[in-house]
Amino acid sequence: MQILFLTDTPLRAQRLARDLVHLGSSRIMDVLDPDQRPSDIERGSVRVIVSDVSFSRSETIAALRLYLDALQDLRKPFLCILHDASARAHAQATALKATYAVPVEHLAKRLALMQPRSPVATPQDSAVRLSGQAEGAREVLVRILALGRNGRSLEPTLIATGAAYIENALRETDVRSWLEVVWQFDDITHQHCLLVAGLAAGFAQHLGMSRADCERLTQAALLHDVGKSRIPLAILNKRGALDQAERAIVQTHPVKGYDMLQGYGYPEEMLAVIRSHHEFLDGSGYPDRLHGRAIPDLVRLVTICDIFGALIERRTYKSPMEPGQAFGVLAGMEGKLDRDLVRAFRSIATAAGPVELRTSA
Question: Going along the chain, which residue ranges are E strands?
Answer without folding.
Answer: 3-7, 26-30, 48-52, 78-82, 100-103
